[in-house]
Amino acid sequence: MTMYAALLRGIMPSNPNMSNDKLRGVFTGLGFESVASVLSSGNIVFATADTDIAELEDRIQEALNTELGIPGGTIIRAESELRDLLDRDPFAGFTHGRGTYLTATFFKRTGEAPPVEPADGDPLTKIIGYDASARVFLTVIDNSTSKTPNFMAWLERAYGKDITTRTWLTVQRVLKKIDAVK
């Protein structure tokens, strides 16, 4: 059995169909084991012997749409991919805090490395880089001003909806949850 994290796009905890209980129910209904949720923002960990990531993503997304009306997107990473990313320590020297968010934008497909700088030259976003093995774009977002960074909107315009962003703290919490349920 391999442990995976499903990073679900478009989850709103205030929507009753998007509660952690219902999300876990879909994963359990698909026959997955060690199903657990992380926070209330669409992060589900699970175990399965299946290894075809694209097939898993499609199967899970179809079930979420059919059973709960969630059309969003499902991006899966194996525990080993997330652990290797964490071990590489891409944010060395940076601290996640109230004014500075360390973010990881996960891409569904390979070969879509973003350019080194966002097209709109957003001064509130520092590009750390693209980690090809984890298919993740790493950035530091300056939240210390009242001005809102345009980076997330730029990413979606440039790469569509087959991406999802998590804070670095959430990525760490996902791995802690995997460790807790194995």
UniProtKB/TrEMBL annotation:
InterPro entries: DUF1697. It comes from the Bacteria. This is DUF1697 domain-containing protein. It comes from Nocardia jinanensis.
